[in-house]
Amino acid sequence: MIDHVGARIVMVDSEPGSPFPSVERIAAAVTDRTRAVITVDLAGIPFDSRPLTGLLAGRGRIDTGLGAALERPVIISDSAHSLGASLQGRPAGSLADLTAFSFHAVKNLTTAEGGALTWRADLPTDREELARWVRTYSLHGQTKDALAKSRGASWEYDVIAPAYKCNLPDTLAALGLSQLNRYEQNLDRRRELLAHYAQGLADTGVKLLEHDADGVASSGHLAIATLPVPGVAERNRVIQELYAAGVSANVHYKPLPLLTAYRDLGFDIADFPNAYAFYARELTLPLHLALSDADVGRVCTALAASLQRSPRDAARSTASAA
Ligand SMILES: Cc1ncc(COP(=O)(O)O)c(C=O)c1O
User: Fold this and answer.
1) Domain hosting residue 282, numbered range
2) Which of the listed residues 180, 204, 230 is the one where a domain comes to its end?
3) Atom of ligand 1 nearest to the CA of 102
4) Most-buried pick from 170, 244, 299, 318 (CB within 10 A)?
5) Does the beta carbon of 221 lie inside 6 Å of ligand 1?
6) Which residue has the CA at smallest separation from atom 10 of ligand 1?
7) Which residue puts its alpha carbon closest to atom 12 of ligand 1?
8) Residue 157 gets which letter from DSSP?
9) How many Cβ atoms are within 10 Å of 218's Cβ, its own excluded?
10) Nearest CA to 95 among 260, 215, 256, 230?
11) Among 4, 38, 104, which residue has the most ligand 1 atoms within 8 Å of its CB, making it the best to mutate?
12) Among 138, 164, 180, residue at a domain's last position
């Protein structure tokens, strides 16, 4: 998306042992050419971008648009995972300036494809105009949708730019609305499943990404685990063994510099050692509403059995021997 608008992508590494960067690390990457900063609510855990407002004040390229009104680069949250999450009572969607949610097929709430863009209620801009702009640019630059054109003699419209078509169709929106009614219960169940995983894996050396730190109410989107194994080959072997035991595990995510498109843009994984180290031992456990408590127990047993057969991570073996 950054590349599509002709901007230059800058990535920052995460902190050691974490998939998240610190706000200080993000602020250190900001230059006088930075227009926006994008953070990610990985696994449904809201990233606390609020300290960035102070750290970025007066910095960046803020000659026009929202950046000029904010007097700092725009803070955008990739909240694809975190619909319904909150931080100290403030819901995802109200923390950053702009927030993007995904309703893709694998998300907590799905419209098969599509999503939503929200903005802070106190954003210093004409919010009606912003909504109009978003609608126009998500409907290939057309100033009216089909319904608006059918009202009286209002057939005429303009196309103000050769934009993309990325609107959420009404039929798919209806799918999403029907899920909203039970979404709170769904979130509770996801949090319950995460607690079962924490219990079931307590003595295995597996470290689960924390979803309930102080003030955090995660949306419980992904059960991200760090395995006590040396690296990628052993992690992949565990995934294969789990599959043979009837458990489908995944990896979130392969760091972008390892993907061809980003390597071709000049990114080098050597510049992101913490993200690589986190990825190398990461495994995502099944987390969905068709899981029973007993299923979680079976996943934990299968994972523990596979780890028993794995060479242990050197640091951990030394610690347990001591
Ligand atoms: C962290 C994250 N960001 C962005 C996206 C993109 O969302 P969408 O597929 O709705 O464009 C996804 C998933 O698809 C995601 O997991």
Assistant:
1) 183-321
2) 180
3) 10
4) 299
5) no
6) 102
7) 80
8) -
9) 27
10) 215
11) 104
12) 180
Q: Is residue 14 part of a domain?
A: no
User: Residue 13 falls within a domain, yes or no?
Assistant: no
| Residue 89's CATH number | 3.40.640.10
In the chain, the N- to C-terminal Cα span, in Å, equals 49
Q: CA separation (Å) from 184 to 94, 179, 284, 287? A: 18, 10, 23, 16
Query: 161 and 140 in contact (C-beta within 8 Å)?
Result: no
Structurally, the chain folds into a number of domains equal to 2
Q: Do 247 and 307 belong together in one domain? A: yes
Same domain as 294, residue 146: no
∠ Cα 33 117 257 (to 5°): 50
User: Which amino acid residue places its CA nearest to atom 2 of ligand 1?
Assistant: 80
Mind listing the pLDDT tens digit for each residue in 290-307? Answer: 999 999 999 999 999 999
Ligand 1 pocket, residue 217 CB under 6 Å = no
Q: Dihedral angle at the C-alpha atoms of 59, 65, 68, 72, nearest 10 degrees?
A: -30
256 lines ligand 1 (CB under 6 A): no
The response to whether residue 83 sits with its C-beta less than 6 Å from ligand 1 reads no
Task: Evaluate: CB of 40 within 6 angstroms of ligand 1.
Answer: yes
Q: What is the pTM of this model?
A: 0.94
Q: Are residues 194 and 133 in the same domain?
A: no
By most ligand atoms within 8 Å of CB, the mutation choice from 14, 45, 79, 102 for ligand 1 is 102
**76 in Cβ contact with 37 (< 8 Å):** yes
Residues 173 and 27 in one domain: yes
217 burial via Cβ count (<10 Å: 0-12, 13-18, 19+):
buried
